[in-house]
Amino acid sequence: MKNSYTGREQYYGDYLALDKILDAQFPESDAKGVEAHDEMLFIIIHQAYELWFKQISHDMVSIIDIFKNDTINDNSEAMQVVTHRLGRVVEIWKLLVAQVDILDTMTPMDFLDFRELLTPASGFQSYQFRLLETKLGLKMEHRYEQKYYQKQLREEHIHGIEDSEKEPSFFELLDAWLSRMPFWDEQKYWSDFKVPEVAKAGLHPFWATYRHTFHAGLQGSEVEEISMNAFDEMFFTSAERPVRLSAEASQAALFINLYREYPMLQQPYRLLSLVLELDQLMATWRYKHIIMVRRMIGMRAGTGGSSGAKYLQGAMEKHQIFAEIAGLATYLMPRTKLPKLTAALAKDLSFHI
Ligand code: HEM
Question: Which protein residue has the closest C-alpha to ligand 1 atom 27?
Fold first, then answer.
């Protein structure tokens, strides 16, 4: 029967192009007449990852497109779409983390049956994974062991990554969105806010107060470890920052965490939580991948020619994209000590009836 919209006779296998997908597994061991039962699993697992990377990229591109707008109303449909799709990306990553367990049913000896036939191919060359890292905000200059990229990736893929880096990343757009947070207007929101006399002069009333109260609450070795300088670097220094997150974005992200119970901050808080969850899940995947690699090949070099598990450990430590947002937890303080917001601001942070 023909579909009344497309005019075509839709059929499950045709619609899903199953003839292509199910005819795309070519174990090298078959071609070479070598017995290696688990190569099929190895291929299918990687293909499944790549399909999910495709879906994640599809969702991330749409999220980035929304964030490219100069203004986004936090109560708008666009913002719901962003959190909804980011929530989906997070769920997919949970699946990708769990999927490692399936490949782990292959033993190191099973892997050795066909490992040599793969060389020098490696997951390192996953173009979709690299583009995803770039879209999220990882720059080539911040990558661990950059030399491997020139050696291992095809030229067209290097160019693709370079082109993708020229586009604003999710990290940069998130930073810009946070920096636009409209609640610092001193006349409108902070004119009757009480600043302690001992607080540093010349700062915004909220930040002068918060800076003072936060440091008064530090104990023992923390007093030296979390210096006023570190605080100032995180929240006030705009030029030559040791961190990538801007001072304005750091302020907004902390404020959202502190006052997230206010209705207007709930959606931004959900977004920040999802971003951190995504970062954690990617780090968890990296960690499980390393454990699996150690079990499969021990200290041997990777098929792609890197130092194997040692390289992966370095990449895991260096490639977390939103670590600075997670690190803001250093600067939280208990609710009982939080500066009370002015009535004007509390009103604008609530839904208007
Ligand atoms: C037997 C299973 C696996 C082993 C032994 C293994 C081994 C390795 C090794 C040693 C590297 C470092 C680069 C190199 O020298 O080759 C690597 C990188 C990588 N592998 Fe795997 N891998 C396995 C399965 C997977 C799977 C299922 C995926 C899913 C897509 C994957 C994705 C990646 C990615 C994305 C990288 C680059 C990571 C980075 O640079 O941070 N690997 N793998």
Answer: 46
